[in-house]
Amino acid sequence: MFMHIVDICEVAYDRDCWRAYLGAFAADAPRYLSVFARRLCDQAGADPGRYRETVERDPFSAVDLLVEPGRLGLDVGEHVERLSADGVTCQVVHGGMWKIPGGTVNDRVAALVDGRTELRFWAGISLKDPSAAEREAVRSHRELGATGFSIIPFLDEADVLSEAFTPVFAYAERERLPVWIHCGQNFATARPVDSCSWWQLDRLAGRHPALRIVAGHGGWPWLGEMAAVAQRHQHVYLDSSTHRASAMRTPGYGWEPVLARVEGPLRRKVLFGSTTWVSGRSAGELAGEFAGLGLTDTALQAWLSGNASRLLEAGS
């Protein structure tokens, strides 16, 4: 276990937020509920056979099966204690504009994070409605205390390069707020696999040179191109969330272009993220696997904490 870990990407939700989050997949990307069926059932305590039969027929009913047992919840005190035991000194928790009783997931996550120095809140911004996206970016920053934003273009069926979203990115650039953008492969099979990829982030970074962009999940499988984008733009970073280090070292997995440069030009550009529900492993366990990559202590600590610490401090 490492004694100092900064986790740039986690989903830490209570029951209402889980229902809204999974409901968004049911509506716009139901394939996720099938691909991650085992992980979701394990975490929720749902019956796998009943779930698999239901998810193909009615994704929304499958979400109910996951939420009903009651294990998809959150005790924020226990969550922070687990982080401390894992050596995680700071964790970014992502929100969303999805509706829940009494407000939105952003409202609820902001309240959970409030007063917890170990947690940072990055507001989820939906691009389905450009005007609503701009309003929520300003509201979540000024009223909810968001220190960054999180965007999932494939769920919104939106192009980040559309001029309609310029006000959102310009606000983040002006206020020095990092923007995490889901990049690379997605399982929304009715939408393009490259709904947001390396070339969009390259152009977005060119338009907004001071905007701190985090390529969510590293932009896999286009890691060679993403490595080039991160090298040529000062404020573009690669987040390794959902990719286990134990898999990265497997020949052909796709992270070779990053690993080949992480001791050099990409040393300051890689960030650790957990998204623990995808792997069923804790942040500490996931970070521990990085020891097997054979990196120097300098590169390893930069990836697991140093780079993210600088990114978070720059926006504070």
From TrEMBL:
<dbReference type="GO" id="GO:0016831">
    <property type="term" value="F:carboxy-lyase activity"/>
</dbReference>
<feature type="domain" description="Amidohydrolase-related">
    <location>
        <begin position="57"/>
        <end position="312"/>
    </location>
</feature>
<protein>
    <recommendedName>
        <fullName>Amidohydrolase-related domain-containing protein</fullName>
    </recommendedName>
</protein>
<dbReference type="InterPro" id="IPR006680">
    <property type="entry name" value="Amidohydro-rel"/>
</dbReference>
<dbReference type="InterPro" id="IPR032466">
    <property type="entry name" value="Metal_Hydrolase"/>
</dbReference>
<dbReference type="Pfam" id="PF04909">
    <property type="entry name" value="Amidohydro_2"/>
</dbReference>
<dbReference type="GO" id="GO:0016787">
    <property type="term" value="F:hydrolase activity"/>
</dbReference>
<keyword id="KW-0456">Lyase</keyword>
<dbReference type="InterPro" id="IPR032465">
    <property type="entry name" value="ACMSD"/>
</dbReference>
